[in-house]
Design goal:
The chain is α/β, with parallel strands linked by helices. The protein has a domain at 1-30 and 78-120 and 166-255: TPP-binding domain (Rossmann fold, 3-Layer(aba) Sandwich), CATH 3.40.50.1220. Helix content is 38%, strand content 16%. The chain contains 10 helices and 9 strands. It has helices at 2-13, 41-44, 47-50, 53-58, 60-77, 82-92, 107-111, 168-180, 199-205, 233-250, and strands at residues 18-22, 98-101, 116-118, 121-128, 134-136, 155-159, 183-187, 209-213, 227-229. It has a 6-stranded parallel sheet with strand order 3-2-1-7-8-9, sandwiched between helices. It has a 3-stranded antiparallel sheet with strand order 5-4-6, covered by helices on one side. Helix 6 runs parallel beside helix 10 (233-250) and helix 8 packs parallel to helix 9 (199-205). It is elongated and about 60 Å long. The two termini are 25 Å apart. The structure holds 2'-O-acetyl adenosine-5-diphosphoribose (OAD). 2'-O-acetyl adenosine-5-diphosphoribose binds at residues 23-26, 28-29, 34-37, 40, 47, 51, 102, 120, 160, 162, 188-190, 192-193, 214-216, 218, 232-233. Residues 23-26, 28-29, 34-37, 40, 47, 51, 102, 120, 160, 162, 188-190, 192-193, 214-216, 218, 232-233 line the site of 2'-O-acetyl adenosine-5-diphosphoribose.
Length: 255
């Protein structure tokens, strides 16, 4: 694996146009369960029952009780792990332009990443379904479920439910970064949910090197990605950031 980490470090050290696409796997080591696979959330609850906008509209109390309250508790206790910090280091070193994340946990920003595209929105904020007023999730009054805005409307997390569109500004920027990057790191995603899952295809089609970091192969492995570093994100991204810093120091900080 060390060989692959060094190969990825050389790929990253050779460009200033790299981006990362991250998914739930990067936050597992922070105590947040993934959606699919062993211990995944969708093994316990059906996403169409709790994570589709039609389900929320039909029965907001049920979605708050079965999904949102539990997720908010888990997210409130989570802190960034070495993988989040490693990506922030790569940005500081001038080797990563941006992180496109499917996660709603805010851990990339907490770790110090400055340019983060929250492709599926965020759980840190709530939005009124009626007047669109936003309010911080940790300031929400949860004595009544679903919580309500002053206008009487129902609050929902400012995330993307199934059945909703990706905010156009996020979609356009992510597509542009994917089409223009030279290297894409794909970390901790099953690459099964579109349109996020098409971003590595877009990068590869435009000639970028696509590097996966994941303990398991994904539909991208062996087809879209150039290689897979088979391991957990924390130690791998941490070692990768160290290896890039070392290469940069050896070359006197030159690109
Ligand atoms: P998934 O739960 O589908 O996939 C998690 C991935 O993380 C899998 O490929 C695992 O092999 C990998 N993994 C497990 N442990 C890991 C570790 N320690 N380090 C790195 N990777 C690890 O999560 P996503 O691909 O993010 O969307 O799911 C995509 C979207 O599906 C989510 O954003 C969410 C969900 O339904 C919406 O809610 C709209």
């Amino acid at each position: 694996m060390q060989d692959l980490i060094e190969r990825a470090a050389r790929d990253l050290a050779g460009t200033r146009r790299a981006v990362a696409l991250t998914g739930a796997g990067i936050s597992i080591e922070s105590g947040i369960p993934p959606f699919r696979g062993p211990g995944g959330l969708w093994e316990k609850i059906d996403p169409m029952e709790v994570a589709h906008i039609d389900a929320f509209r039909r029965d907001p109390r049920k979605v708050w009780d079965l999904l949102i309250k539990g997720m908010q508790t888990v997210l409130a206790a989570a802190v960034p792990n070495p993988a989040h910090r490693g990506l922030a280091t790569l940005e500081r070193l001038g080797r990563l332009q941006a992180v496109i994340t499917q996660n709603v946990d805010g851990l990339h920003q907490q770790a110090g990443s400055q340019d983060v595209i929250e492709f599926h929105g965020t759980f840190a904020w709530q939005r009124c379904m009626t007047c669109e007023r936003r309010c911080r999730s940790d300031e929400l009054d949860l004595t009544e479920i679903p919580p309500r805005c002053e206008c009487g409307g129902i609050f929902r997390p400012d995330c993307v439910f199934f059945g909703e569109l990706i905010p156009p500004e996020h979609l356009v920027r992510a597509q542009q970064l994917a089409a223009e990057c030279r290297v894409m790191l794909v970390v901790g995603t099953s690459a099964t949910v579109h349109p996020a899952a098409m971003l590595p295809h877009l990068a590869r089609g435009a000639g970028a090197r696509v590097i996966e970091i994941n303990p398991e192969p994904t539909p991208l492995t062996g087809t879209v990605s150039d290689y897979l570093i088979p391991g957990p994100a924390g130690p791998v991204v941490d070692a990768l950031a160290d290896a890039v810093a070392a290469l940069q120091a050896d070359s006197g900080g030159q690109a």
